[in-house]
Amino acid sequence: MWTLLHARRGVQFGLGLGMGVLFGFLLHRAGVTQYEVIIGQLLLVDFTVVKVMLSAMVTGMIGVHVLRSLGLVTLHPKPGSLGMTGIGALIFGVGFGTLGYCPGTVVGAVGHGSLDALFGGVAGALIGAALFAALYPRLKDGLLRKGWFGDITWPQLLKAKSPWIVVVPVAAAMVGLLLWLESAGL
Asked: Cα dihedral angle (6, 11, 15, 20), rounded to 10 degrees?
């Protein structure tokens, strides 16, 4: 099945588009495509975004490692550095704080008709991507390589005999935080 999927680009495109539409719909249903919810998160008065992200992280982390344990997927972590993380966080933070959308929520907001997301968010993302692409040749061997840590994962960094030694307590901590946020009414 996987070989067939890898060989058929049209199927990959359709599957990707379908999953993207589903993802946008779920973001919208969760309320995180609304400007007020995003700003509420930045002001630390509405933790809807944190709860959605923690839920996604727990689900994704456990799902990926179950599939990996069953031999159905292979992990291919992208290499990184503190410089890459810093530049990415700066670009993300400026857009997020200025307009109140992240890349996922801006597309979901466009889907339900938010013109500020379309003209500010999508246009801003395209301009930001173009600027980064133009500056990349100058950044790639300098700032982006600062603090290089490669493609190591947390279980590898902690020298865990099994990734589950890291996954289970991290997932439990996230679920605990989710429960605490809910019980605190945040």
From this structure: 100
Note the pLDDT tens digit of each residue in 129-161: 898 899 899 988 888 889 898 888 888 889 999
Cβ–Cβ < 8 Å for 47, 186:
yes
Q: What are the Cα distances from residue 185, in Å, to 27, 125, 178, 180, 181? A: 20, 33, 11, 9, 6
pLDDT in tens, 50-78: 999 899 999 999 999 999 999 888 888 88
